[in-house]
């Protein structure tokens, strides 16, 4: 019987690519708010593995704990948790920021990750095994102008990853983080509130990473032998040297 992996934010971008990448090896609990997309993904992957859909907003602590606590028996033993759900909302100077955007980033990227982890980790402790992979970002080690609160949320993911690794150290649970640079997903569309032209500009003039690139790295992390835990992995497109230095004359 295959082990179970729960992926948050599987309805698009990196999370969806992870589901596609690891479907041969794991039974999948794919989560997100857009249920029609999760159903479509489930249909595509159903010939490879068993799929369970989790439709909840990670900000809703009760919905998160209810979903995890009432999993059908055969879905309870979660071996892998990919804390991927998250987004940037807005790109504004600190004195002009929209406080609703700030709430969204802190509530989804930080508190949402905590709520899901809090619900899943006791199951891993019971099994004295598991692997948690948190989606950080280069934005979580390298601040950029107008990134302020998004940066802070990803610095928090970095701190939480390190804290989780310490607190779970005696329980046989691996904790890893992956920190991508620029990946072409719906990320910029969300950041710029549906302004597709602006979103497209983020990825012009160079070859950005694709979601598949990150999914392959995560599959590598998951496939290491039991005694190997990849703590941290920074993955950048060739054109990107730091959060602020991107060679847009590459093409
Ligand atoms: P994306 O295509 O916009 O996907 C974001 C995913 O998060 C969606 O599946 C979305 O699902 C889910 N999500 C957002 N808010 C949610 C909420 N309140 N409750 C539940 N699910 C929620 O963006 P992506 O690039 O794949 O981003 C995935 C992760 O990678 C994020 O943590 C992001 O910060 C990180 N990252 C991205 C980049 C990049 O350049 N793209 C770089 C570094 C790190 P629903 O809308 O269906 O809920």
Offer a concise description of the structure.
This protein has a single domain (3-235), classed as 3-Layer(aba) Sandwich (Rossmann fold), CATH 3.40.50.720. Helix content is 41%, strand content 18%. It has helices spanning 13-22, 35-45, 61-69, 99-127, 148-167, 187-191, 196-201, 211-222, and strands spanning 3-7, 26-32, 51-55, 78-83, 130-135, 173-180, 183-184, 209-210, 232-235.
Number of domains: 1
Broad structural category: alpha/beta
Low-confidence residue ranges: none
Largest sheet: 7 strands, parallel
Ligand roster: NADP nicotinamide-adenine-dinucleotide phosphate
Question: Could you give the distance between the termini?
Answer: 47 Å
Quote the beta fraction: 15-25%
Named at the architecture level, the CATH assignment is: 3-Layer(aba) Sandwich
Rg estimate, integer Å: 17 Å
Helix content: 40-55%
Give the CATH superfamily: NAD(P)-binding Rossmann-like Domain
Inertia-based shape:
globular
Instruction: Give a count of the beta strands, DSSP E runs of length 2 or more.
Output: 9
Biggest sheet, strands in spatial order?
3-2-1-4-5-6-9
Q: CATH topology, anyone?
A: Rossmann fold
Key descriptive features of the protein:
single chain; 251 residues; alpha/beta; Rossmann fold; 7-stranded parallel sheet; globular; binds NADP nicotinamide-adenine-dinucleotide phosphate
Describe, in plain words, how this protein is organized in 3D.
By secondary structure, the chain is of the alpha/beta class. It has one domain: NAD(P)-binding Rossmann-like Domain (Rossmann fold, 3-Layer(aba) Sandwich), CATH 3.40.50.720. It has eight helices and nine strands. The strands form two sheets. The chain has a seven-stranded parallel sheet, with helices on both faces. α3 runs parallel beside α4 and α4 runs parallel beside α5. The longest helix is centred in the middle third of the chain and has 29 residues. Bound molecules: NADP nicotinamide-adenine-dinucleotide phosphate. NADP nicotinamide-adenine-dinucleotide phosphate binds next to α1, α4 and α6.
């Amino acid at each position: 019987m295959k082990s179970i992996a729960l992926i948050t934010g599987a309805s698009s971008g990196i999370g969806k690519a992870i589901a596609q990448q690891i479907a041969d090896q794991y039974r999948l609990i794919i989560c997100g708010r857009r249920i029609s997309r999760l159903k479509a993904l489930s249909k595509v992957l159903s010939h490879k593995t068993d799929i369970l859909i989790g439709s909840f907003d990670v900000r809703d602590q009760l919905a998160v704990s209810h979903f995890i606590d009432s999993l059908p028996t055969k879905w309870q033993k979660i071996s892998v948790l990919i804390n991927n759900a998250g987004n940037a909302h807005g790109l504004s100077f600190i004195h002009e920021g929209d406080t609703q955007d700030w709430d969204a980033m802190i509530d989804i990227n930080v508190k949402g990750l905590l709520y899901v982890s809090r619900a899943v980790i006791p199951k891993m402790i019971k099994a004295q095994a598991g692997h948690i992979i948190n989606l950080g970002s280069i934005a979580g080690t390298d601040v950029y102008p107008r990134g302020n609160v998004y940066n802070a949320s990803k610095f928090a993911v970095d701190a939480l990853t390190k804290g989780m690794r310490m607190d779970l150290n005696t329980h046989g649970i691996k904790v890893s983080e992956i920190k991508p640079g620029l990946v072409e997903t719906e990320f910029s569309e969300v950041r710029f509130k549906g302004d597709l032209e602006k979103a497209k500009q983020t990825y012009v003039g160079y070859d950005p990473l694709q979601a598949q690139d990150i999914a392959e790295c995560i599959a590598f992390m998951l496939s290491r032998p039991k005694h190997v835990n990849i703590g941290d992995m920074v993955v950048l497109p060739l054109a990107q040297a730091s959060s602020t230095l991107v060679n847009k004359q590459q093409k």
